Amino acid sequence: MVNYRQGHTADWLQHFAHRGYGAARPLAAGVEGAVYWLGKGVIAKVWSGRSPTDLDLTRRVYADIAHHQLPFATPEILDVERREGILVTYERELTGAPSRPDSAASPPERGLTSRETDALLTVLRGLSTVPGTEAMRCLTVQGDDRPLWQGHTRFPDALAALVERATRRHSELLADHVPDLSTRVERAVRALRALPDTPVSVIHGDLVPPNIHVDETGRPTAVLDFGFFTTAGDAAFEAAVTAVIWNMYGPSAEQHAAALTRLFAAELHHKPQTLALYQAAYAMTTYDLFASDGSDGHFRWCVALLDRCPLPK
């Protein structure tokens, strides 16, 4: 088994202390690396997983987003260093507290509240006003080997090509769990390529509860941790993915996903069938990103999502 989730180490805490951040403590960890709170309004991200292949590109994307007046803050890189070949970015600390705990660590028991759904709609509407830029089109999403938009001029075509590449990475593993996989992939690719062209905006791609911070009233104060599936794309893709990843593992996960999908279709004027198609595409492109043998929860979650996402005949 290969586990792609990164962790924290005491060595990094010592390193930050030597740099004058004696109060440093672990904050979060994911596929790309580990995040540390340093105090003094600064956090550090240790890119021990996939480092940004082009830090200038990442800075350009951050700047492209920050250029627009949003009702919440977004990341800003303050400084950069390399330590023993590992990239470390020092970034502005973003205020607020996570909307919910990560459902993988602490499955939520409560239902969706209007305060919670209002916050999600605020974030989705805000990000949809940030036009997709050339820098965003140059980004490579997690697990792939090339910029998503390379060789394409439309988001649906770029995503269709990614579906084809991703389902080939561990095709035998996926086929063991998804009946008639090749037909389902063909139908998804055909349906994606048949989607109409739409204006593109920034896509965060990982709007899980820890990545949306709110104040004591539930108002979004910050959206953080761009990079997992960040690109330029159809705002309906962002809404579709958010609906299913907001509560992935709790006892009411499927009900919450269905409720959020209906809400986003109604409030943001997205076609339900387009949302379902994008949800299937997300499962097909991320199923192997946390472990290579299908033994992790995300793989099982993707298989279950594919089982319930209808695809056009």
TrEMBL record:
Domain Aminoglycoside phosphotransferase per the UniProt entry, residue ranges: 24-260
GO molecular function: transferase activity
Skewed-composition ranges (Low complexity): 97-108
Family annotation (SUPFAM superfamilies): Protein kinase-like (PK-like)
Documented EC number(s): 2.7.1.-
Main enzyme class: transferase
Assigned keywords, A-Z: Transferase
Domain of life: Bacteria
Coiled-coil positions: none
Region called Disordered, residue ranges: 92-115
Pfam families: APH (PF01636)
Protein name: Aminoglycoside phosphotransferase family protein
